[in-house]
Design a protein that fits this description.
Length: 290
């Protein structure tokens, strides 16, 4: 058990708020966060070391893992409890919307985000800029966009993502259908020489990830996972021929039989492009199908 986990367990045992079930769930959730932080490259020596950058990193990871709004709300409530008990309540925003997460009562918040050109230009690191371009153009997860190797991935009409870059180790392909995608790939290929990736040769993935988090946080570029949602919604519009429910389109009940067929076909294609095995997960990106 690492130092942070041990300290969080002690914190929970000193502060027995709520029922036994609540206490047990909170402790289990907080110790899982300690594991997440370690995986992200943050080795906090104690619970008191929690900072806003750690909260941002955790939320971005949960978004990348496609956790539901309800699940992230629970985790944020545990984080707020943690921050309160160490006397640093302002470390975690009281507003879930700050993190792109729906409040209770909202069915689903539209997390789609367009890239702010001014914030993008303010990023100093060209490798991080290139990763963001790939997230916007192809709906890639942050890890996939950081590990991207253009000489390995680029084909005439699609990109191929290797299992070592993707969640769950599932390789996949994403079609090249727009001029913006080709421009993004050209930019990346010009930046990366030989068989390299968007991780500079002198850095590890974790080091580049922390640099990515620092650079995007510094310029106020939050919820970069929102680029993936925007990609899914653009693809839905192209494939189905009308906007998805979450972007102001018809609900399932309002659709005609032909529109429902188009909706289902678009979701299958988008699910494959995003690297998901379950069609249901597209509800998070597009709105409920039923």
């Amino acid at each position: 058990m690492d130092d942070l986990t041990m300290d969080l367990v002690r914190l929970c045992r000193r502060n027995r708020d709520g029922s036994r079930g609540t206490q047990s769930n909170r402790q289990r959730g907080l110790t899982a966060m300690a594991d997440d932080l370690q995986e992200l490259g943050y080795k906090l020596p104690a619970a008191l070391s929690l900072k806003p950058k750690h909260v941002e990193a955790l939320v971005e990871k949960w978004l990348d893992d496609d956790k539901t709004d309800a699940s992230i709300r629970n985790r944020l409530s545990w984080l707020r409890w943690w921050a309160e008990k160490i006397g640093k309540p302002n470390v975690v925003s009281r507003d879930n919307a700050t993190y792109g997460v729906a409040e209770r009562g909202e069915v689903t918040r539209n997390r789609a985000q367009t890239l702010d050109p001014q914030k993008f230009r303010a990023i100093d690191n060209p490798h991080i800029q290139a990763s963001i371009l790939l997230q916007v153009a192809f709906g890639l997860r942050r890890e996939e966009a950081i590990k991207f190797r253009p000489q390995v991935a680029m084909r005439a009409d699609h990109i191929t993502l290797q299992g070592s870059w993707t969640k769950g180790g599932r390789p996949r392909t994403v079609p090249i259908t727009t001029l913006d995608q080709r421009h993004a790939l050209q930019h990346v290929a010009t930046l990366v020489k030989g068989q390299g990736s968007l991780i500079p040769a002198e850095l590890t993935y974790v080091e580049q990830l922390k640099r990515y988090e620092y650079e995007t946080y510094k310029v106020g570029l939050r919820n970069t996972h929102g680029f993936r949602h925007a990609y899914a919604q653009r693809r839905y519009q192209t494939l189905a021929g009308f906007p998805c429910p979450l972007a102001g389109g018809k609900s399932w009940k309002e659709m005609t039989g032909k529109e429902r067929d188009a909706d289902r076909a678009a979701r299958r294609q988008i699910s494959a492009e995003l690297g998901h095995g379950r069609l249901k997960i597209t509800d998070t990106y597009l709105g409920r199908a039923f």
